[in-house]
């Protein structure tokens, strides 16, 4: 696909001591677009597109057949291929009857995001700042690997969950992303990955800006299109959705998605977890574990993300408590040394404390993996997204 790009600075740097703004982040003057740009083709998976066509006058079977053809035509090409034509002639060539043309041609097939900035890291990670049609700024992170490239995907502009270690949470929530805006992050990143060479983009993690479970309907619709074998063809096992632990959405997630689930835990007890993750006031660790035990499908496992903070949650006794908590759940624990964030008191542990914690946890028989930071030097590592945008906000008058 052709990458719409507008290279420019986002905003001037603030004066020292300026407080962070909230709703301002991501706001810019809207980019002029065509009149039909409000209705996006990428906002539809095959099922919702079939329903649109059924309302346009088609039978249920005809609507499903046309939706399958359209999804394959619009989204099934390999990365870097020319944009497929989108007009009455192209639809007729697909075998789509005239009865469906008006409804389909009212949908805009073009990407709804444009590249505002590329921030390459020394480790080859690439932080992307993408501008939506209303001017909102969204960040995604492209992480190359030896066998496959991963994209860290955003689900909201900002986040309402206010975790103490997260730059995005400090900004507050501006708005939800539509399914098409989620899909378009992948469309743009896949094309960039193809341009850069190396391993293809095959892994998606919803660990960017926002809490995916607070926008679950649009996230699920995007995942259905991204994993559709007629469209983007991502393997469901290579799509992971991360939540801070919104326990009442766990059952609907497993019921409607084949993707993997990651839960951000980050403390071994309620008191410490609630101090850094306000969600724990509503969903205690016991309630979270009960929801997981009740909803986890047979043969599936959950990933626990445990961000390690120096002398806060990294003692050997904390590893013991964590092992006791995850006991009985089919799981893996990803231990993540924290990255510089909004609270300077939360610092990464020494290598010795990290190694001791991991050894103690593994000694309890817990499958454990250390996730090393990627893209930290450009604000693209875990907990850092939108931090650069915050630092570049205009100073208040």
TrEMBL record:
UniProt entry tagged with the keyword NADP: no
Locations listed in the record: Cytoplasm
Pfam families given in the database record: Radical_SAM
GO biological process: rRNA base methylation; tRNA methylation
MF terms in GO: 4 iron, 4 sulfur cluster binding; metal ion binding; RNA methyltransferase activity
Highest taxon above the source species: Bacteria
Cellular component, GO, one term: cytoplasm
InterPro entries, A to Z: Aldolase_TIM, Methyltransferase_A, rRNA_lsu_MTrfase_RlmN/Cfr, rSAM, rSAM_sf
Sequence ranges of Low complexity compositional bias: 11-23
Record-annotated Radical SAM core domain positions: 145-377
PROSITE patterns linked to this entry: RADICAL_SAM (PS51918)
SUPFAM superfamilies for the chain: Radical SAM enzymes
Required cofactor names: [4Fe-4S] cluster
Key words, A-Z: 4Fe-4S, Cytoplasm, Disulfide bond, Iron, Iron-sulfur, Metal-binding, Methyltransferase, S-adenosyl-L-methionine, Transferase
KW Hydrolase (keyword) present: no
Coiled coil: none
Family: Belongs to the radical SAM superfamily. RlmN family.
Protein name as it appears in the record: RNA methyltransferase
Source species: Sorangium cellulosum
């Amino acid at each position: 696909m052709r990458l719409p790009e507008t290279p420019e600075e986002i905003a001037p740097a603030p004066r020292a001591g300026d407080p962070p703004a909230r709703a301002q982040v991501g706001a810019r003057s809207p980019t002029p677009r065509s009149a039909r740009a409000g209705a996006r083709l990428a906002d539809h998976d095959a099922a919702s597109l079939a329903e649109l066509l059924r309302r346009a006058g088609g039978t249920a079977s005809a609507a499903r057949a046309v939706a399958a053809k359209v999804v394959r035509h619009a989204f099934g090409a390999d990365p870097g291929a020319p944009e497929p034509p989108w007009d009455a002639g192209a639809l007729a060539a697909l075998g789509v009857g005239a009865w469906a043309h008006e409804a389909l041609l009212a949908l805009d097939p073009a990407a709804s995001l444009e590249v505002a900035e590329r921030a390459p890291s020394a480790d080859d990670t690439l932080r992307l700042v993408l501008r939506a049609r209303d001017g909102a700024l969204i960040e995604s992170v492209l992480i190359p690997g030896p066998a496959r490239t991963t994209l860290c995907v955003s689900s909201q502009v900002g986040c309402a969950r206010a975790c103490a270690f997260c730059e995005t949470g400090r900004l507050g929530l501006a708005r939800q992303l539509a399914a098409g805006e989620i899909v378009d992050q992948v469309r743009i990143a896949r094309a960039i990955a193809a341009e850069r060479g190396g391993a293809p983009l095959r892994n998606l993690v919803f660990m960017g800006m926002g809490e995916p479970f607070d926008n679950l309907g649009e996230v699920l619709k995007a995942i259905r299109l991204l994993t559709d074998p007629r469209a983007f063809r991502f393997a469901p096992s290579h799509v992971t959705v991360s939540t801070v632990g919104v326990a009442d959405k766990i059952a609907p997630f497993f019921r409607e998605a084949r993707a993997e689930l990651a839960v951000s835990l980050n403390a071994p007890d309620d008191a410490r977890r609630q101090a850094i993750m306000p969600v724990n006031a509503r969903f205690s660790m016991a309630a979270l574990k009960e929801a997981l035990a009740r909803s986890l499908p047979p043969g599936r496992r959950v990933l626990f993300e445990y961000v390690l903070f120096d002398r806060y949650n990294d003692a050997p006794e904390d590893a013991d408590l964590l092992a006791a908590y995850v006991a009985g759940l089919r799981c893996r624990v990803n231990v993540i040394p924290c990255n510089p964030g909004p609270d300077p008191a939360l610092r990464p542990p020494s290598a010795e404390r990290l190694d001791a914690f991991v050894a103690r946890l593994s000694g309890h028989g817990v499958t454990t993996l250390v996730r090393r930071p990627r893209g930290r030097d450009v604000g693209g590592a875990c907990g850092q997204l939108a931090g650069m945008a915050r630092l570049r906000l205009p100073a208040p008058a």
